[in-house]
Design a protein that fits this description.
Blueprint lengths: L2 E7 L16 E7 L13 E4 L6 H14 L4 E4 L2 H14 L6 H6 L3 H10 L7 E4 L2 H11 L3 E5 L9 E3 L2 H10 L7 E5 L3 E11 L2 E12 L16 E7 L5 H14 L6 E11 L5 E7 L7 H9 L3 H9 L14 E8 L5 E4 L1 H5 L6 E4 L17 E7 L2 H16 L2 E3 L1
Parallel strand pairs: 1-2, 1-4, 2-3
Antiparallel strand pairs: 5-8, 6-7, 6-8, 9-10, 9-12, 10-11, 11-14, 12-13, 14-17, 15-18, 16-17
């Protein structure tokens, strides 16, 4: 008998072409946040473009009604925004898979830090707040500098470094929602990495480690200030033989054990301290890494992470890695200046032998604001050998981009 699978999905079709993953062993109902053309839905048994997708209660009611008509065996979420509510539905409907508390460990930044600390990971001193007085109190305990971040956001969205009282006043004047909770933690100076893995039957079956690096020579995901030249942010895989690889793999294993995640993918972030090379846990999510991370992992290992996550959750056996390139792969994100874009000669960039693929995301004549989260004007994929070689490529490519762009 075919398994009845319900996929609740907001990941783009480009990154989650679900029809291509369906065999005769499953029957799929797809509830999507966007409209998918019929030509792509040939393997989908039941497709629902749900206009109330962001309404938790409406979505829950829909899934429950569908389950009552014909019971689902599997509920799948691929996006971070859906992991928690799908876990809640699994518990409510008695369906196997990641349960609510486990999903909360991978979603709520305060709770995950508590769990990480209990499992002997190094965690920067931290607290949480939802108003200015709470923030002042937490800083009095932790001391400057601190990082502040919304508990429910992903990536570097809404993240600020407060180095002194002046920064605190500026942050307060910008305003933040008192209806939300925020994380505050001691800022650790060091290099930033992410770990991407596949969890099968509660064990870490595959792991990749990547490093963040920008054209200013900094390892960070935080936006820069107003700089009068092209700035790029890069993210690239590192070698198994690099000392950071085994260290961070060990740290991730500490978290996964006992976390209640048995099948799926993970994306974690760490900072290795400049001071003593201690690996500090920043956060972890029970989903595939975003942006172009999946592209670089596919180039190096032949793995399509979202497909692996889907296959494991429906009970299939998977093979990984499919290959292991000696080269490392990365992606370079091009950020705008606070100016109007007059010209961007992308053909000169595409034709450069160091560029594997270039993705356009710009509009000539548009006035940009670098402070807007992820307001980039293009992304390219590149490769290299050692970490130093990748850093050299970042500088070269940034210079190439800068010489082919005109701002006013």
């Amino acid at each position: 008998m075919k398994k009845r699978v319900c996929v609740i999905n907001t990941v783009t079709w480009l990154r989650a072409p679900i029809s291509e993953w369906i065999d005769n062993d499953i029957e799929v109902t797809l509830i999507s946040s966007y409209d998918v053309e019929k030509i792509f839905l040939n393997q989908i048994s039941d497709y629902i473009f749900f206009k109330q997708y962001d309404n938790d209660q409406a979505l829950e009611n829909l899934v429950i009604e569908l389950h009552q008509e014909k019971k689902f065996d599997v509920l799948i979420a691929l996006s971070e925004r859906d992991v928690l509510r799908v876990a809640k539905l699994r518990e409510l409907l008695g369906i196997d898979g990641q349960k609510y508390f486990s999903a909360l460990l991978y979603r709520d930044k305060y709770l995950m830090k508590q769990f990480a600390k209990l499992n002997n990971l190094h965690v920067p001193e931290f607290g949480k707040f939802h108003n200015f007085d709470d923030l002042v109190y937490e800083i009095s305990k932790i001391g400057y500098p601190v990082l502040v971040k919304p508990l429910s956001e992903s990536g570097s969205e809404g993240v600020h470094i407060l180095r002194n009282k002046e920064d605190l006043d500026t942050y307060a004047n910008q305003g933040f929602s008192t209806s939300n909770e925020y994380d505050v933690e001691r800022f650790i100076s060091g290099d930033m990495y992410h770990v991407d893995g596949i969890v099968e039957n509660g064990k870490l079956g595959f792991v990749s480690v990547s490093k963040y690096w920008n054209s200013l020579g900094q390892s960070t995901t935080l936006m820069c200030g107003n700089i009068d030249r092209t700035v790029t942010f890069a993210d690239f895989t590192i070698d198994y033989s690099d000392w950071e690889f085994s260290m961070l793999k060990t740290e991730v294993l500490k978290f996964i054990r006992g976390s209640g995640l048995y099948n799926g993918t993970i994306h974690a972030e760490f900072i290795i301290s400049d001071k003593d090379k201690t690996p500090y846990f920043i956060e972890i999510a029970s989903r595939t890494g975003g942006l172009m991370i999946t592209n670089t992992l596919e180039k190096k290992y032949g793995i399509i992470m979202n497909k692996v996550s889907f296959d494991l959750q429906v009970g299939r056996k998977v093979k990984y890695p499919l290959k292991r390139e000696s080269k490392n792969f990365g992606f370079l994100t091009i950020f705008p200046q606070n100016k109007k874009l007059l010209d961007f000669n992308i053909e000169n960039i595409k034709s450069d032998p160091n560029v594997i693929k270039f993705f356009e995301h710009h509009k000539i004549g548009k006035t940009y604001n670098i402070s807007e989260y992820m307001n980039h004007i293009g992304v390219l994929i590149f490769d290299g050998t050692s970490q130093e070689d990748m850093k050299h490529k970042i500088q070269y490519l940034t210079t190439l981009i800068d010489s082919n762009i005109t701002w006013k």
